[in-house]
Amino acid sequence: MAVQSRVADSFRRRAVIFQVRTDNHIRNSAAFAESIRTDVETAIGDRFGDRLRRVEVYLEDVNSDKGGIDTRCSVEVHLAGRPAVAAHDVAADVETAVDGAVERVLRVIEKQLGRQDDRAGHTSAAGDQGM
User: Fold this and answer.
1) I need a labelling partner for 100 at 20 to 30 A (CA). Which of 6, 42, 68, 71 fits?
2) CATH fold of 2-121, please?
C-alpha cells in the first residue's frame, strides 16, 4: 500500500493529465476514476513516470445488456518526445479489461523504446555509430 501511495504522489506532482471516460453503459464517478487511476499509475508510473505526460482510459460496454465478455478498455499513453501509444483489451469486467490494456500498452512502449535503444548502439552501413 505504501508503494502505491508513493507512486501516486509522484505521479500527481509531475502534473500528468489523466482522463477516464466511459460510454453510457458504464457508470463513471470520481471514486471509480480514482481507483482506475491508482491501478494505472502504479503499473506505468514505476517504469515511465519521469517521461509520462498524459494517460487516457476509455471504457465501453460493447454488448451493453446482452452480457458476456464485453467490457473494452482502451489506454492511450503520451510520453515526452514520443508519439502516443495505444492498446486495448476486452474482458468480462472493468478491472480485468484495464489490467489487460495496461499490460499491452506497456509491451508496446517497451518494444518501441527497446528499438530506439538498439538503433542508438548499432553501426550503420556507412560505418557511422548510431546516436
Assistant:
1) 6
2) Double Stranded RNA Binding Domain (3.30.160)
Which residues have a Cβ under 8 Å from the Cβ of 63 and sit 6 or more positions away?
A: 70
Task: Specify the pTM.
Answer: 0.75
Give the pLDDT confidence of 54-80 residue by residue, as tens digits.
999 999 999 877 767 789 999 999 999
Amino acid at 44: I
Instruction: Please state, in angstroms and rounded to a whole number, the distance separating the CA atoms of residues 54 and 49.
Output: 10
Query: What integer is the mean pLDDT of 80-85?
Result: 93
What's at 17, amino acid-wise?
I
Report how far residue 117's alpha carbon sits from residue 67's, in angstroms, rounded to the nearest whole number.
Answer: 44
Asked if residue 38 lies in contact with residue 32, where contact means CB atoms within 8 angstroms, the answer is no
Task: Copy the grid coordinates of residue 78.
Answer: 503520451
